[in-house]
Design goal:
The protein is about 30% helix and about 20% strand. It is built from twelve helices and 14 strands. Strand 9 (about 230-235), helix 9 and strand 10 form a beta-alpha-beta unit. Helix 2 (about 65-75) packs across helix 10 (about 290-305). It is globular and about 65 Å long. The model has no long low-confidence stretch (mean pLDDT about 90).
């Protein structure tokens, strides 16, 4: 796996490596591409940082291409947590002559890393790079779920070119299609067109309003646990906490909530790639937004090394099985609770002939609240959404 042709080394102008006897910081433990003739080995690595300095298809946020190096500057200063992460920084992806060249390169790199069991951590750049991330799973032939943390849906119009506010339409319309489900966390109603909300409902996608999510942040965990890839638009964070964005808004998640969501992503055994987008250092205040994203990445690393490797499809003796009868529903609802992590899943019926195709999707991450809903003789909305897709 020779990925060196796609990258250029990173220059660290401010980070100072620790002297002998001093405690190591992230910059000391991350294996970085800083020498043109010494591309880092990835053979024993768990996570790989990819900087993508690309904003040609960004909307109202020119300058976000500069974000990767600013985020690194803060990330490298942080101390590791309890587990020293096995991380490589591959450097910055070389910008293509045409933006589709950049997409192609990112798709190939992400695909190769996932094949090798390495989780790519993408630092953009504009959020249209999510489309290139998605196409990596097409190369793998894998049907996936996407979760986006965003204040709007980025649907745009079907005839528009791909950009940071219309990439989702391109994903939906792209053939062959490998998208099973899309979920938005934190949309704000005044940024969401009613036709877009109807389309989300018609496609049985999941959309969670900011107010509902903030009222119970623990309910975010099963949403994120069901994702193969997570795309984060920093404009989902309120302007006071993340001013470095051309589309920043007074309302949104606070910094702690963003870190909580990203930690949930790290904990998810299913999630295999993550991207942070739309940070604009030209609009930032004392590097506040870059610093926040650096801390969020730190939490992702922490979550990753707290993974329990539990999924009830194969190892069912480590789970408690619950059966719930619903009036007027011929099949009992089946729930599983992990003895290791206390996390919940529910099984959605699927035709035997389709089980292999949807093996990763008919066991749906859920919460104890979904089980309680079933016990009150109601179908959980999360169960119903997946059932509609499988039937």
């Amino acid at each position: 796996m020779d990925l060196s042709v796609y990258f250029e080394p990173v220059e660290f102008l401010q980070f100072r490596y620790a002297e002998k006897g001093q405690r190591k910081r992230m910059g000391d433990v991350i294996r970085s591409f800083v020498n043109e003739n010494n591309f880092p080995d990835v053979s024993d690595i768990d996570l790989a940082i990819i900087g993508v300095k690309e904003d040609r298809n960004g909307v109202n946020n020119k300058g976000c291409a500069q974000a990767p190096d600013f985020v690194r500057d803060f990330l490298y200063r942080l101390f590791p947590g309890q587990t020293i992460p096995k991380v490589v920084d591959l450097g910055n992806l070389k910008q293509g002559f045409d933006i589709d060249d950049t997409y192609f390169a990112l798709t190939h790199v992400v695909s190769e890393l996932i094949k090798a069991g390495i989780v790519p951590v993408i630092i953009g750049g504009s959020q249209d790079l999510t489309f290139a991330n998605y196409k990596a799973y097409e190369d793998l032939g894998q049907i996936i779920n996407i979760v986006s943390v965003d204040s709007c849906f980025d649907l745009g119009k079907s005839d528009e070119e791909n950009d940071s506010q219309s990439y989702l339409s391109r994903i939906i319309l792209h053939l062959p299609n490998y998208l099973f489900n899309y979920a938005n966390i934190g949309y704000q109603s005044y940024f969401a067109d009613q036709d877009a909300i109807k389309l989300m409902n018609n496609l049985f996608f999941d959309a969670y309003r900011l107010g509902k999510v903030r009222a119970n942040m623990e309910e975010v965990e099963p949403i994120v646990r069901n994702a193969d890839m997570l795309s984060i638009d920093i404009s989902a964070v309120r302007q006071s906490d993340a001013p470095g964005n051309g589309n920043a808004s007074p309302n949104g998640f606070n910094g702690e909530e963003l870190c909580q969501i990203v930690r949930y992503a790290g904990l998810s055994d299913k999630l295999s790639s993550i991207g942070f987008y739309e940070v604009n250092p030209l609009m930032d205040h004392h590097g506040q937004t870059s610093h926040l994203v650096a801390q969020a990445i730190w939490y992702f690393f922490e979550g990753y090394y707290g993974r329990k490797k539990d999924f009830p499809l194969k190892d069912k003796e480590n789970y408690v099985k619950y059966l719930v009868t619903i009036s007027g529903h011929k099949d009992e609802l089946v729930f599983f609770k992990s003895k290791k992590s206390d996390r919940w899943w529910m099984e959605v019926p699927v035709q035997t002939s389709m089980k292999s195709k949807y093996e990763r999707h008919y066991l749906v991450p859920c919460s104890y609240q979904d089980y309680q809903t079933a016990c009150t003789d109601e179908l959980p909305n999360r169960w119903w959404q997946v059932y509609q897709k499988l039937m």
